[in-house]
Write a structure and sequence with these properties.
4 strands; alpha+beta; membrane; globular; Lipoprotein signal peptidase; four-stranded antiparallel sheet; protease; 154 residues; transmembrane helix
Length: 154
């Protein structure tokens, strides 16, 4: 299998994401928040929409649409990674972080119809939208892909 080590990374990251979400689902009441420090709280929320709750509150059609988009994006990322040479480590790492986050949220969407969020970052009265590990992986993957160093070998 091409990129075996990256697929092991993918598996570990998806399992970590799902494990943390299960902790919050089983230990917190919906909406419950615990302050960790002045900048971080654990807040259990269920996001029925996409990023930043975009399209949240829609019915079954919206949930189905987001599920299908998640599946198609995940398939596209797998195909993209298979076309990427092993010499492009930063690109592959970004692709697999992106895939790990997409699949982590896809599992939630398929199983529950919503994504489990729990990381609540805030400074004074500014609150960032609550997110999860999968969202962080997507962000990091995209950042690695945007700032990918071009190969200088000829």
């Amino acid at each position: 299998m091409k990129h075996k080590g990256y697929y092991l990374l993918f598996l570990g990251l998806v399992l970590t994401d799902q494990f943390t979400k299960q902790i919050f689902m089983s230990s917190f009441d919906l909406g419950q928040s615990i302050v960790v420090n002045p900048f971080l709280s654990w807040t259990y929320l269920q996001n029925t929409g996409a990023a930043f709750s975009f399209l949240a509150g829609g019915g079954m059609m919206q949930k189905s649409f987001l599920l299908v988009v998640s599946i198609l994006v995940s398939i596209w990322i797998v195909i993209w990674t298979q076309k990427t040479s092993s010499i492009y480590r930063q690109k592959l790492t970004g692709q697999f972080l992106l895939l790990s986050g997409a699949v982590g949220n896809l599992i939630d969407r398929a199983q529950y119809g919503f994504v489990i969020d729990f990381i609540d970052v805030h400074v004074n009265s500014f609150y960032w939208p609550v997110f999860n590990i999968a969202d962080s992986l997507i962000f990091l993957g995209v950042a690695l892909l945007i700032f990918e160093r071009k190969s200088t070998s000829k």
